[in-house]
Amino acid sequence: MNQKMVSQLHELIEQRNGQYVNDVREESLVEDFIKKKINMNKERGAEIVRSFVEGDVIRTSRVDDHLYVDYLQRCEFLIHLKDQLYLEELVEQRRATFVQDELREDQVIASREVEQEAIETTANVRSFQHDQRTNRSYNRREAVRYAERWWDDFNPQYRKFTDNCTNFISQCLHAGGATMKGYPNRSNGWWFRSNNWSYSWSVAHALRWYLSGENGGLRGVEKESAMELEPGDVICYDFNGDGRWQHTTIVVDKDANGEPLVNAQTANSRMRYWKYEDSTAWTPNIKYKFFHITI
Asked: pTM for this structure?
């Protein structure tokens, strides 16, 4: 990757940063995903008043005259809503395509927004003793504290997955005192132990149904509205509306309208507005499930 290409990518990121907050916008020059975020915030009465965008190259590959540059784009957005100011953070994996040293295309790697499956990657993990905790209340503060500490990192005490969103949420719930049960049957219960784990621990679809049906240990009470949720509660996402649940987030705060702000992994996000209308995975058919966690 030569200096000319570096300069083009740097210029693109600088332009993108300005598009989030520039009041005088040439509509045709604003990227579609930025328009979606601006409009989503406008509809809820919020505004991005300051942004910071930077990129870190993680790999390059060449095929004939095409150079593909994968990079992490890190964004910070200062959001103003009524009398509230808060900071949203987002990390996206993007790919820039250069042809003969000219930048031709730049797009988010869409699969990183949606959990495809829980594919493990190498990590040093500890073996958790199977929980025998009973009569414990759910410590929402500890669940949120964990979500804030690890939203953009991986706890080496757990196995890391390529698609890590539900694994991360399960870790948050366990940090809040949720009880593991069901070992060693992967199709039963909710648990993690060293080199083995239940489907409900690591797969969004399985966790959604576990929360709906479990009567002991970790369980969720389904709510009709996102506004009924509290920090430490869980939202499940079916982006296509086809019955396959693909993503999970944890509520870490509420905005000035009383709506949840969530943390998540895979596309690592902090204090993100819960509807995900700015996501590349969002479709008009999206369905949500809202779970108030009890243990």
From this structure: 0.91
